[in-house]
Amino acid sequence: MSKKNYIIATDLYNFKKCAYRPFMDYNGDPALKVEIHPLIKLLWASGVQYEAKVIESYQRDHSEKSFRAIDPEKPASEALAKETFSAMQAGVDIIYQGVLISGNKLGRPDLLLKSPGKSNLGDYHYYPMDIKLTRIDATWDDGNEKAPMEQFWQVYFYGELLEKVQGKRPDKGYIYKTKARILPIPLYKPPMHYEWALQQLENYLQGNAFGAEPTINSNCGMCEWKASCTKWANEKHDISLVYRVGQAMKGGLKALGIETIEDLANADTAQLTSKAQALKEQGYFWKSMPADLPAQSIERARLHITHQPVIRQPITFPETHLEIHFDIEDDPTQDFVYLHGALLVEKGKEPEYIAFFADRRENEKLITEQLFAFFDKYPDTPIYHYGDYERDTIKRLISKHKLDTHIYDRLFAENGMAIDLCRLIATHTDWPLTSYGLKAICKFLGFQWDANDAGGAASIVWMNEYLDGNTSMKEKILRYNEDDCQATYFLKNALIKMQN
User: 136: pLDDT confidence band, cut at 50, 70 and 90?
Assistant: First the structure.
């Protein structure tokens, strides 16, 4: 049996990220956990602070009788569930941190808000609202913001519990995000895969894995169970160690009897492609899975065995006297870009690192204007970066601060001067690695970052320490960013050498 008594909304959130994570949360040996990443702690703290601001605004607009907090400092319990139900029976307009329990399911939405509509309570009922410290990550075709599916699942879970508690399922729930963005979440039918996820959690609660096992992917980085899962995957030569064999891909391959890297490497390309397509039509893999991914996965599995990367198509770079390698650091918890770093490389000279650093949040616009002025000095110079992040961030900053678009157009329009090394890696090369991230590839090739804990997540933590008064963190942040810029320069040269 599990060590837990209830399924909670966070379990659904974690399940969407990794279907094995909740099983370990329920049944794993705590001794196998690694320390919680400092960024996770920071996100928790930032979320709590933001939630407090939102709640304060609700309290200002309501009397003590119309706003009730259900002991938010105490852990959820049956006693707090009874207190919540009493507040609902009394018709309190807003209930903060109410507890809802039905069977082995427990939910604690940030807010329960009273609304007209028949229920067991009378001529009113409640709908749930969660408060999330997040910026816009995706939109629908009509431009409206799209809620991540894991957040959708959580709010739907609260809606189901409310149906049990008050005898009426609310039509909608809501997510309150930064800048008072309130997203409606329809609750009239289960979201995709929700019911399957909930059934799996029921199994986990009984101590039954039912075939669930670790899948190594980008979500593992800050998980407490990462060391345990990585050890298991390495010992088993698990197929998820192959790039792009994620949770859905692994499930489809396992249905075909392919479980190890060796199984995949030895598969017949034509047969696997055909069988995968047939299984895809039965609901395995995922709808938009590229038809050539099974064949690519076979080739990548073979690289794992030889431990040698391969360049599948020639890569050429412009022959220029100057080039710039560019990297951005930002804190998504505060929607704050605090550093633009650039490595100016001139033939015959030592590369020069230039940093545009915001000592405080109000300087974000200033450092972006400084960056644009720097780029204007080198209009015909190629600018190297890794991934979509720099492009998307520049676009967002232009919109946010109403800046001229000429730099974006020069860099990222068709035939622009920006060269995305990540795209070249993805389209022209393959590697015996689980991740094709800049750090994974450059470390494989021998490049080392100065800080042992170097990473974008660590940089965010360091910046928050700097803003809290630890000025020594600035040098660490700049050194890490310079290493990132040096890494793209190193990678570009390594790609050239690999072809000679």
Answer: low
